[in-house]
Amino acid sequence: MTLSKKLNVLIVCGTPKIRLKEAEEGGVPLSESLKRLLDTGNDTPIHISYPGVGPVTLATYLSNNGITVAVKDWYADPVDLRGYDVIGISGTHLDFDHLRSVVLEVHRLNPAAVIVVGGPVTLTYPIDKLLGELTDINYLVFNEGEKTFLELLRAIEAGGELSGISGIGYRDNGRFITTPRRQPLHPDEFCIPDWTLMDLSRRIPLLSIETARGCAYTCAYCFEVNFWGKPVRFRRPEVLIDELRINYEKFGITTYRIADSCFTTPEDRCAAICDRIIREFIQKGIPIRWSCYARINNLKKDLLTKMKEAGCVAICVGMESGDATVLKNMNKFYSSDQIIGGITNAREAGIITHCNIIVGFPGETPESIATTISTLNAARPSTYHCMTLDIAPDTVLANNKTSYSLSGDRLEWEHHTMSSREAKKFIYEIMNNVKYSTHLPMGDVLTVLLTADGHALPEIRMLLESIANATWDEKERRMMNRIFRREHTVS
Ligand code: B12
Ligand code: SF4
Fold it and tell me: How far is the CA of 328 from the centre of ligand 2 (A)?
């Protein structure tokens, strides 16, 4: 499809609302105490939505290269699609069904627009499903979007040839074509996102920031390693400081979620960025606050103390299991003692901790589940979240099913010691036996959302503990409800 004129481009993005009922059906049971706290019945949508950094970074890159572009949150902004020639849909947080509904609606509202879909969703489903079933999509952009989308737009604008553009998918005479993977950008080519391309006025004062792309580890279930490629590409610390300063001066933003796959590795880089934040902001009275993804083996006292001083309020840790065999099978190179030590260190440094748990990885047994429970009870993270194993495509696990004695796909699987059906039941077993931590999807996100909304850490901790213990009286419960609702009604 070609349009021989200067293009007007819109990128739509956002995280869909999660319905409690859907979350439970999807294998994410919510604790009774959390349901009671929400007190809204089973079908109430919770909207944990704040702008992701990808679409704006992408739009900034296009804008710097002369393209007229805007970004809208599909789930939070009023979106008028009239007048756009190309509509890009960000699939960073969309699954297939959500993608289908956005594509259908975009096409209904602007049938003439060229529809381009990018983001992780383009690689979590095969091209014949995406282009075969969603016939309104014109092009897919795989992996990193900046250069690929720009080249694609220029080709559409000029009526040029597509086959020379790396990193795209399209139809050609009834066939689905995938062009070769594009070489990654040099980190100096990443843009400082220009948040004026999005309407921030209706959102809480919280932004995402990326300091690196990729991850140094190779956990067997993880999709991010292949998505971003190796080696990890690090942005220069001085550029990050500029980004924080610009966002403070333009929008008064001081609260962030660091979007990196693993911000704490390497430790000396993490410490060096913290030092700069302390020097450039904290010591000048600018209260930068943030959360990040962290790795168990990095959770050492000195680093955590520095992170706390630099404004870290919460960390999200992919603990995944407490059992040595399961951890080894996952390519995780830490022990349950390290988990307990690391989480304890973070708590003692005053940082709220959230642990993700995968239930059912090959090697999982009732005994390994018991070890995970006892590890969680000894480590006492503030919040945790259990999911059953999802066999994501192009992971070490998906590519070596035979050696893992694994059959099935995505959320329906079976191996020597467990099936996905059994794994779902074990989630309840974990929830019923973990004593000191709150089962909460996206716990650290809640923490930074509340921080951005002006709540103090003790208040947030009290909320999390109240959810866990469910012992509050009516007055306390009303206050918790107010805190929680305030944060959820923003978007
Ligand atoms: C931060 C993050 C979150 C935050 C998001 C908040 C926010 N607003 O930023 C939180 C914690 C809330 C979150 C939640 C979830 N997340 Co998340 N998250 C991430 C993470 C770590 C970083 C995202 C990011 O900002 N990346 C950096 C930017 C630059 O990358 P990007 O957005 O992908 O954009 C680039 C390209 O993808 C592409 N691109 C993106 N959009 C578009 C659009 C067009 C038109 C084009 C051409 C290109 C393009 O170009 C961009 C620049 O190169 C990623 C993993 C990762 N490291 O990327 C997972 C990830 C995106 N999350 C994922 C998942 C599954 C979830 C959850 C569903 C998890 C869960 N079960 O609860 C929930 C979503 C729930 C919901 N409905 O809200 C998956 C997505 C898989 C998929 N879509 O198939 C990922 C990849 C992690 C994983 N390995 O599984 N997440
Ligand atoms: S799970 Fe986390 S630490 Fe492991 S490879 Fe993926 S992003 Fe890296």
Answer: 14
